[in-house]
Amino acid sequence: MSTLSFDGCAHTLKLLGDDGSTIGTWTAYNHVDRRATFSHVENGTYQIQDKLKPHLHPGDSEDGSYGSYGIIRFNYSGHPGVGVHSGRAHSPYQPGPEHATKGCIRTTDEAMKKIKENMARSSLSTISVANNSGCEAMSATQKYGNIYIPPGMNLL
Hints:
Layout: E1 2-7, E2 12-16, E3 22-27, E4 44-47, E5 71-73, E6 83-85, E7 105-106, H1 109-119, E8 124-130, H2 134-143
Family: Belongs to the YkuD family.
Keywords: Cell shape, Cell wall biogenesis/degradation, Peptidoglycan synthesis, Transferase
InterPro entries: LD_TPept_cat_dom, Transpep_catalytic_dom
């Protein structure tokens, strides 16, 4: 089984083969919109829900919410539907992977195409999230002027 690995500080998503070798590395962000119900995906390893193929949304495209290749959802407690997807490739504001989501990790259509092709040969088992603490997530958000202040955090 292959796996995904997301590094929130480096803003990279890796697809790893059965033997742990890197099949591909792409740009990815966990830039969460300030109106979302949580600030970022916590560090940890999560079970993939869509192991054999991404979940598709009818009519989506590279400029749509989820990109041309759908979403690969993973089990994230309290937040069903969180996953990895592309989309918003030509958005006038923060195009591509840097475009804010409601909590998902956004990458490129190129990445999703390669991951989808690999899933046909080797199912996905997990995604590991590292270096994605609140500080890293907040710095990515602040970079774009979308300041998110987690509940209970006092900036004074």
